[in-house]
TrEMBL record:
Residues 1-18 form the signal peptide. PANTHER family: ELECTRON CARRIER/ PROTEIN DISULFIDE OXIDOREDUCTASE, ELECTRON CARRIER_ PROTEIN DISULFIDE OXIDOREDUCTASE. The keyword DNA repair does not apply. InterPro entries: DUF547. Residues 87-198 form the DUF547 domain. Keywords: Signal. This is DUF547 domain-containing protein.
Amino acid sequence: MKILISSLLLLFSFSTFAAPKSELWDYWNVSNEKNATTISHQYWQQTLDKYLMTKGEFTLFYYANVTDADERTLNSYLRQMSRIDPREYKKAEQYAYWVNLYNAITVKIILDNYPIKSITKLGGLFSFGPWDEEVIIVAGKALTLNDIEHRILRPIWNDPRTHYAVNCASLGCPNLQSKAFTARNSDKLLDKAATEFINSNKGVLIQEDKVQLSSIYDWFAVDFGNQTQLFKHLKKYRPELKSFKGDIRYDYDWSLNKQ
C-alpha cells in the first residue's frame, strides 16, 4: 500500500510540474545607480572553493564533507545577505546578489536535509521540491526560491542566460559556477555558464538526425523564443550547430549533484 501511495505521489508530482511564469514583483524593481558600494560574497566563495569540484561535464558538491564550522560560515553568509536591502544598490550589484543568494540557499536546503537522492523529494506532501517554501526574509519580505528566480531575476533582467546561473542542485541543471557572481564578472560568468551547458550532453545532445535538449528549453521556451530563435541562441555558444527541423526530445536528470 505504501509503495502504491509513493508511486501515485511521484506520478502526481511529475505530471503536474510546470515552470512558473515570469511575473514581476514591482517591489524589487528599484535601484540606486549612484551607489558605488559593492556587496561582499566572500563567505559564499569560501564555500565554493572548499566543496565544489569538476568531474567531466559536471560540477559536484561535497555535501557529505561539509563541516559544522563551514556550515556556520554558510549560515553567516545568508544572515549577512538577509540584512541587506538590495534595492539600495545598482542593478548590476543586485543581479549578482540574487543569483548568489539563490544558489547559497539551495545548498543550505540540501545540507539541512542530507542525505537525499533528489531535491524534488523535498517540500510538502503534494509539492515537487522546495521552491515554493519561504526560505529567507529580505527587506521585510519573505521570499521563496521561485520568487527570486521568477518574480525578480527573470522579469527584471529579461536575460535567458539567467537559467544557466541559478542552480537547482541537480545533475541536469547548468553547473553551479566555481566563482561567486559579482557586478564586474556576471556577464563573463553568464557566457561561460552558457558555453559549458550548451556544449554538454545534458544541454544539447545531437545524434545523427536526432537532437535531445535540456528540458529547460521546453519549460522556459518563452524566454528563448521559437525554435529558430532558440537555435540562434544555441549556435552563439556552439557555432557548429545547425538549425534542426526534426523532432526534438527533452530530458532532465533530477539526481542530486553530489560528489
